[in-house]
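From the pipeline queue, job 12 of 40. The input is one protein chain; the requested action is below.

Action: predict structure.
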Amino acid sequence: MALSQRDVRTRIKAVTNIEKITRAMAMIAAARLRRAVTRIETLRPYANAIRRMTREASKAAGSLKRVPILQAHDEERTVGLLLVAGDRGLAGAFNSNVVRAGIAAGHEHEAAGRRVVYFASGRRVASSLAFRSLEVAESFTGYTDRPSFSDARRIAERLVAAFLDGEVDRVEIVYNGYVSAISQVVRRETLLPLQQATLLEEESAEDAAVEAAKPYHVAPEYEPDPEAVLRRLVPDYVEISIFRALLESTASEHGARMTAMRHASDNAVELIQDLTLQMNRARQAEITQDLMEVVAGAEGLGG
């Protein structure tokens, strides 16, 4: 059934209002994205330094058996998965990508005979896991637009306590890594135990290049010993790793929301153009019909 001109005008007005809202949301997301990227760039040198110091101290320590937080459990029966996403939607597949990757990781561990305990950062993750009747040990919400280091510390303390108390034997984190405003990559990293953490993998090409560029190399000396240094460094490493993931996730969310809202605005503009064309055609049809009726009436009077 064809819409009347009045109905079409109403739809045009509604779509125009939506287009204004989505365009404003895209502009807000773009401004927040710039701030989020600046925070990532500011944190990166410190995070890399903590990672490098922890890796070197662990090499110097050799055996890590006397430091509880560094000890790998005899068996990996339970795995803690921290899924990091946002509190809000309207960001395309940003939240669903993390949930999908986290559940896939959980299924992988369950297939290997390990129990999975989920930790959620962001309301969308918590609600999605609850909807699927998956066990959520604890959820952290209310900060995803602008996370602070205290938020990362709160999460890190909970995860470290779960690892030390034997609640979990392994801790992994899944989040959206920021590549650009239009590109986010889901990353899965191991935080604990340290022996299996991403930290102790072979040096990246960037780190190797930095080391090669140094004019000389000096082996660091540790006082009182490398294990004591590691007792202090590892909690910082966990906190910084989580804080970096939170910042990366925030930047990814703003980028995804900016892109989604721009696409929504473009689609709204196209729909407005289609509706305007439809209204003009309807008006032209009505005018043509009125003219035909006038001509037919005149011919009838003339007859």
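Job complete. The chain has two domains: 5-25+259-302, 35-257.
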